[in-house]
Amino acid sequence: MSDDLPRTTQRINEADVRKVATLARLALTDDELATATAELGAMLEHFADIDALELDGVEPMMQPTPLSNVMRDDIVGETLDRDEVLGQAPLAEDDRFRVPPIIGIEQ
Amino acid sequence: MSAFDIASKVRNGETTAADVVDAHLARIAERDDEINAFNLVLNDAARVRAAEIDEIIAAGDDPGPLAGVPVALKDNLCTRGIPTTCSSKILADWAPPYDATVVTRLSDAGAIAIGKTNLDEFAMGSSTENSAFGTTRNPLDTTRVPGGSSGGSAAAVAAGFAPLSLGSDTGGSIRQPAALCGVVGVKPTYGAVSRLGLIAFGSSLDQIGPFAHDVSDAALALEAISGHDPSDSTSIQQGPLDLTAALDRGVDGLRIGRITDLPTGASPDVEERLEVAFDALRSAGAEIVDVVVPAFGYGLTAYYLIAPAEASSNLARFDGVRFGMRTTAPDTNSMYTATRTDGFGDEVKRRIMLGTYALSAGYYDAYYGRAQKVRRLISNDFKAAYAQVDVLLTPASPSVAFEVGAKASDPLSMYLCDTYTIPSNLTGDPGMSVPFGTGEHGLPVGVQILAPALKDDVMFQAGATLERHMQSERGVAS
Fold it and tell me: What is the ipTM of this complex?
């Protein structure tokens, strides 16, 4: 290792994958969890090739072009048609998206 | 017939848009059951649009440079009122409320949308096998893949279903299938083509670009779709690319870079064609210059940490609330999970998890943070190389088209397909694949031309020269 930046040398385990799946709102069966852990482990092992690089002081690159704030006059323009948008939702009611209860249900 | 010829003949009345569309729809009806290039063929809409084009001609007006040209659209490009699925179950029934800017621009140029093409779900893959709507086959050998993720668009052009198509390229998804199907495929400079209405995968990497039979048709298409769009915050502040003018410039005095430390892994037949390409450009007056790009080989790692990280964030919007399918559940949180678990395929889930991991507390600096620094190293190395040369030449794909199923069970081996195409997505520079003869099993080999940002025209100069060489090589052979 040639710089002091953090690296992850420990292998990804099933608990990590389960946590990640929960964060990503994905449910995994036990079989899927085992497969995902093995596949992600193999990938991360391959990706360890960048651990050897000296990266101290290197400016991270977020995207290719220098972006600057874009200003424009506040002019009313065309917007999406509300009925057309709501018409494509799984469930809509009273000009709004309809979802199941958010609070009041025991998890 | 090329797009260029179709547009000229439609414009001068030698043929009609209606006849052009009928001929292409007939070819699709004849062979798409076997190829599966399309998720949706727009039979009626294309005929209606063709009649409109013919009326414009009859009235003595000009429909535009792509008059009457059928174009196939990758099914991650939004088309108003027409299903746009990303080849995912989660969007199977969704019809967008607006058109992508590229769709509007093609239509304004007189082109006719003929269908929506298959892709690896959400553009994640290199073989068009990861689709909720079945595998697309390579028209040149239907036991093999067309490449991916824009495999449907590449196959549509190769099979003669449309003279032009559009794809998207996040890590090689235009150039690799172009190589495997023997057509031209271009990823323009990042920001040169508006991405409004392209369903996002990796926002700092995605670009839309054309497939075509020849370099000149690709130039025509790219000129029509490029240019600033105020609705895309990453769109470059400049007009359409000027490419057609570059096609006849030749390469006399152009410096062509050979990367001496290019990652290994290309098969011998591909290497051999690359050598022929260097010779062809040298004979045409170019100077071949050896350069090094030491960080090139780290592109794969940087990409497969950055792209999934961006995807995990972009795909968070598919939650069963505003669009697409919903799996019902008693409360909103479990509805999100049930919908996403049912709606996404295995590869998409894998990448979402990989990206979520790379961004999660405790791992961010080790993975995503390091990858962004590596991205800078790669960009710096390319800048140094482009200080010495005008364009670089590499293989587009490490091998010719592989068999359906050959890499399906090993995600990492599939990822290696992108080794040579990934760096220009990380740097934002343009790249194109030009068909350059055949390799193993008589299958096409693509040579990749890379150029610095906004030098798309110089890339086309070299591409047109390689194409002229191939025409004379074929002429000698026949």
Answer: 0.93
